[in-house]
Specification:
Number of helices: 12
CATH topology: Ribonucleotide Reductase, subunit A
CATH architecture: Orthogonal Bundle
Bound molecules: benzoyl coenzyme A, fe (iii) ion
Number of strands: 5
Structural class: mainly alpha
CATH superfamily: Ribonucleotide Reductase, subunit A
Number of domains: 1
Low-confidence stretches: none
Helix content: 40-55%
Strand content: 5-15%
Mean pLDDT: 97
Amino acid sequence: MSLNYRDRIPNNVDLGTNRSLQRALEHWQPKFLTWWQDLGPEGFQAADVYLRTATSVDAKGWATYGKVKMPDYRWGIFLAEQTADRRIGFGDFYGKPAWDQVPGDFRSTLRRLIVTQGDTEPASVEQQRLLGQICPSLYDLRNLFQVNVEEGRHLWAMVYLLHAYFGRDGREEAEELLARHSGDADKPRILGTFNEPISDWLSFYMFTYFTDRDGKFQLKSLAESGFDPLARTCQFMLTEEAHHMFVGETGIGRVIRRTLEVMDEINSDDPEALRKAGAIDLPTVQKYLNFWFSSSLDLFGSDVSSNAATVFANGLKGRPDEGRYEDHVCVEDVFDLDKPDGKGGVETETVPLRNAMNEVTRNAYVKDCMIGVKRWNRSIAKAGKPFELTLPSTRFRRQIGSWAGFSVMPDGTPIDEEAWNARVNEWLPTEADQQFVHSLMRQVTAPGKMASWIAPPDRGINNLPVDYEYVHLG
Ligand code: BYC
Ligand code: FE
Ligand code: FE
């Protein structure tokens, strides 16, 4: 299936054969571009950026690279190839043919899932809009913009579904996706993490490591959907997501590598001395990790959720990698959950598996988060430094689910509020920590040069050297 770049809206859905849909999307397109100009990357709309653009929807070899001004990026509608005779892979309709149209009974539930997914994409662009002005290198600046244009395309992906399958209310929801804004007091974005400011690059790397990884797992779950257009859209989005998490993992890895170098240079691992030397001390990295990991855990929803049970039963949203499981119906199985016992301790509650699907997905996510942490720790150990980064307990600093509002130490021990207040500054970034990190953020734009607090990447993009001019400032 070739991608049509001749149409005003690039696509592989034969958009040209559906005139009214094409017109509706062409009506939304200028609104998207206005939003991009107003709330997309500030100050770089005229710059030439070395970006990759999709040329096929195959998992391999789908990209072409070249210098593009971001407003000229060809945002389009790309779905993975259709599988013949695809069947619904889980829930009450297991084994029935997948749906090409919206199943009427589940219309509003399905729309809500698509809107929630769609809302996060422009939210992240809004959160990151000022980072270009404090970029640590041209290489990083280019990666930021690559992530931004692709999140913009993910918005297109959901808007296409809303326009194509949900009629007038779908079109209204598409407008609302441009009307809510990250952090807006009156019209915030739907999910908590997407209203948190990302005002420095350490937060950006944490976000792309932890929060884009929620994207990976939610997209994997939606890629199992019995509603075939949603499944195929998400399958292609997943191929773009890998780079976002790469930016996070290598970004944090480079921050750590630079800190280790400075430790050797000044022959000290004292946080204050490291800060004076322009590096980010590892306890501060841990605090930022604690913040973004715990925030991202909330994105999976409550551990016991009737919503989750319903969307699973209805065949709308499965488990990530549903194929790994033997039982796809899950009416008999149960799941053991830890929850507060109301007396300052922990107790186990046994719930029907379908109601615990959010927790099943969250557990898979936590396991995936470990991979990078292990890699970072290996580099610290190799440098001979006695420090280990850890993922805090899933009970720590939760705002959604049965641990919401409870004071819990990073190791998972429940404590009282007084003890929490006495120690919270050891666990989460303080105002002073944030000010320090922010004080390091000075724009570096000479090709190949890096800010003081970050090591260069191992290699450049698409086999180009690290000192290639990835962004030509107009
Ligand atoms: N903040 O039964 P519950 C990405 C609401 S990231 C605020 O606990 P449910 C990306 C919930 O909406 C992937 N509110 O949860 C990453 C519900 O409200 P209503 C995004 C929250 O419904 C980086 C109520 O609490 N995709 O792509 O089972 C850059 C009770 O809900 C939060 C998706 O999320 C929260 N954290 O699950 C760019 C997939 N959590 O309806 C992009 C689609 C819950 O009672 N969404 N609530 O008013 C879903 O599948 C589900 O909506 C959720 C929540 C998993 C998010
Ligand atoms: Fe996305
Ligand atoms: Fe992403």
